[in-house]
Design brief:
It contains 6 helices and 2 strands. By secondary structure, it is mainly α. The protein has a single domain, classed as Four Helix Bundle (Hemerythrin (Met), subunit A).
Length: about 140
Amino acid sequence: MKFGDFIKNGAVKRGSADFQLAKSLAITANQDLIFLKTLEVTDNSARKVSSNYYDVLRSVLEALAALDGFKVYSHEAFTYYLRENGLENESAKFDRFRKIRNSINYYGKSISVEEAVEFVEDISGLIAALKEKLLKKLEKK
């Protein structure tokens, strides 16, 4: 499968670059990240904290895609978006996080405190790397 397949089936819409949307998504992602860092991961919070970190990652990806003129309606499409932008390692990581989040949100899988802490550490690294790319793109506009 390719990113273009998601465009063909309507899961991604092509338009013009949306700097304001990208900027807004970057700001809210940063605010959410600041808030999430204040939370303690416990047995009761592990599932929601993990899902919310994934939401921040997705917001950063939505901002990057908006700068390229795309509105993405499929989380899976981001895997191919990253791959086709030469970010193979980031693509694989994102897909792993997507599957973990889906198993939590849609299939009722529980996540231990230890797993959630590891998830947060790993996903935070990807968020930071993609935020850096996003900020560089925003500075060019």
